[in-house]
Amino acid sequence: MDYATIDGWGSWGNADYQRGNDIGHDQSQYGYFAWNELDAYSAFIYGFGDLNCHNKYERSWFINGNQMPVCTRDIGIFLGAFLGALLFFRRGHNRWTIRDSFLSVFPDEKIKPLYDNDRRILAMWAIAAIAVIPIGLDGGIQMLTSYESNTISRLLTGAPFGVFITWFFCSSLCSRPAKFSLDASKVILPGNARLQLLPESPTPEVSAEDSGEEE
User: Fold this and answer.
1) Does residue 7 lie within any of the structural domains?
2) 87 and 141 share a domain?
3) What is d(CA 41, CA 47) in angstroms, rounded to the nearest whole number?
4) Is the pTM above the cut of 0.85?
C-alpha cells in the first residue's frame, strides 16, 4: 500500500525520492493523495488499485483531473479480462478437459485439423504465447533498459493478456467430467473425435480411430 495515508503506514508513494537514487514518484510536485480520506465506495476502488498497481502518474490516465486507480496497462488487462469472459460466456462450453473446453470457442470446422493431428495442447500454448509474450517483452525491456513504452503500447499489450487469463480461467471452471457422468465417450468433439481413457491414464486422450486417423 503506497497511498493509503499521507504519512506513516501505507504512505510510501507520498514520500519524495530523488530519481536515480531510488524508485519514487516525486509526489510533492503533483499533490499528495490518500485514498482512506475518500468516501467508502471511492476508497475501495482506489485501495484495490493501490494493492494491484504501481499507480505512477506518468503511466496513468486522468479523467476530470483525477488520476485513475490503475495504470493504462492494467486498464488494458481488465478490459481484456472482460472480453475474455464474454467470449467464453457466448461461445465456450464444457468438453471435459481444459484444453478442449478452451478451444470450444472456435467453430468446430475451423479446429477439426487440430483433432485430426492431436495438436490441441500445442494450439492452446501457441495462443498463450501470443497473449503473454508481448506484455512480457514490453514490460521486461522497459525494466532492463532506458526504453519507455507509451500509453497505446501498454494498452495493446495488456488487453491480449487479460483475454487469455479469463478465457483460460473460465475453461478451467467449466471443465467438469461429472457433467458427463464420468463417461468420456459422451463428449462430442470436432470431426466426430472422441475422448478415450487409455489404460492406467486418468487423462482422456483423443481416439485416433474415432477422429479419422489411421493408427
Assistant:
1) no
2) yes
3) 10
4) no
- Do 95 and 50 share a structural domain? no
Q: Per-residue pLDDT tens for 40-84?
A: 999 999 999 988 888 787 888 888 888 889 999 999 999 999 999
202 within some domain: no
Q: Are residues 60 and 125 in the same domain?
A: no
Note whether 170 and 127 are same-domain residues.
yes
103 in any annotated domain: yes
- Do 30 and 107 lie in one domain? The reply is no
Would you call 149 helix, strand, or coil by DSSP? coil
